[in-house]
Amino acid sequence: MGTRDASDIKKFVRERYAEIARQQTPSCCAPRSEEATTCCSPGAQETSYARRLYSREELESISVNIPSLGCGNPAAVAELKAGEVVLDLGSGGGIDCFLAAQKVGPEGRVIGLDMTAEMIRLARENAEKLSLDNVEFRLGEMEHMPIEASSVDVVISNCVINLSPDKDAVFQEAFRVLKPGGRMCVSDIVTQGELTAEVRESLEQWAACVAGALGERVYLEKIRAAGFVEVSLEGKNPPFCAEATTSGIEAAKGEGIANITVTAYKPK
Amino acid sequence: MKKDLMEILACPLCKGSLELSIEEEDKKEIVRGSLYCSRCSISYPVEDTIPNLLPPELRT
Fold first, then answer.
1. Would you call B43 an interface residue with chain A, using a CB distance cutoff of 8 Å?
2. Is residue A258 helix, strand or coil?
3. Residue A8 at interface with chain B, using a CB cutoff of 8 Å
């Protein structure tokens, strides 16, 4: 994380995502203004951006306008089953929670955790519009999850863990809250090669999902170090963000980052 | 927040159980109240149905 202080990073990221929630900017990615830049696609591509992550059926099932701030579709890759308890780290506007809620059904439940009050409010409003009763949102930190040990079947997260200044804590907490045999399925940004010092030190680039990203090997090692087994790479793609040619990605010299989706299990 | 989700809630710091106090609730859920951790002596507010379980130094 360079010389940046963890609390500065968190504060900056929170403020940035609060601003996006207030604007209801419909993409992670898509800035309405220079000030609100985050990771990926530009505004004109909002719809096509979401269509690259989610199927038409999935998008049609969520009939409200929700910012899609992710880089994958972990709720689909996780193959959720009816009755499961799902925890979404960095739930944002709630899109992945709502897709998960449909899959786990009335006997299951989905908890969205986000450290930004504005995002939690937005997600709650969306849940009400969708009349989903099995989804709840909590204001909390993924480094300090307010969740009992061994209480969750599946942890999902979509392009959020890169934003944390303490990824070891995030993976350790995910491991703690999972039931034995439970699984984690996360989509995230990883780096390929070195980012420039200028990018690494930029809070803007941290909030844009670039500066905080780890190399793929280190990312997978941290998951294993937290105790997970059967850690597997389910998918790897060039970032959709590449089209956006944000300054960070340019600074990362084009080949700098990739989207990955990883599954991992807590031993039984 | 709904009462039945209490069972998997925990203090974000010590991971101990939380004691719920309800100030206002409707048919579906708790609107206002607090969640108290006796081990840490910290009270986490529930405001407008949303439990704020951020560690105290991150609360705004």
1. no
2. strand
3. no
Per-residue confidence (pLDDT) for residue B27, from 0 to 100: 86
Q: How far is B25 from chain A (nearest CA, A)?
A: 16
pLDDT for A153-207, tens place per residue? 999 999 999 999 999 999 999 999 999 999 999 999 998 888 888 888 888 888 8
Return the CATH number of the domain spanning residue range A6-265.
3.40.50.150
Composition of chain B by helix, strand, coil, percent to 5: 15, 40, 45
Sketch the domain layout of chain A as residue ranges. Answer: 6-265
- List of residues 6+ apart from A125 with CB closer than 8 A: none
Non-local CB neighbours of B41 within 8 Å, separated by 6+ positions: none
Burial pattern A138-173, b for ≥16 Cβ within 10 A else e, equals bbbbbbbbbbbeebbbbbbbbbbbbbbbbbebbbbb
CATH 2.20.25 fits B3-58, yes or no: yes
pLDDT at A30 over 60: no
Encoding tokens for residue A150? 């061994």
Min distance A152 CA to chain B CA atoms (Å): 8
A79-89: pLDDT as tens digits: 999 999 999 99
With the C-alpha atoms ordered A113, A123, B5, A134, is the resulting torsion angle positive or negative? negative
A28 torsion bin: left (phi>0), alpha (psi -120 to 50), beta (else): alpha
- Cβ atoms A185, A155 nearer than 8 A: yes
**Using CA atoms, how far apart are residues A55 and A218, in angstroms rounded to an integer?**
31
Domain boundaries, chain B: 3-58
Mutate to test the interface with A, among B53, B57, B59 (most CBs of A within 10 A): B53
User: Which residues are CB-neighbours of A120 under 8 A, at least 6 positions away?
Assistant: A91, A112, A114, A137, A138, A139, B50
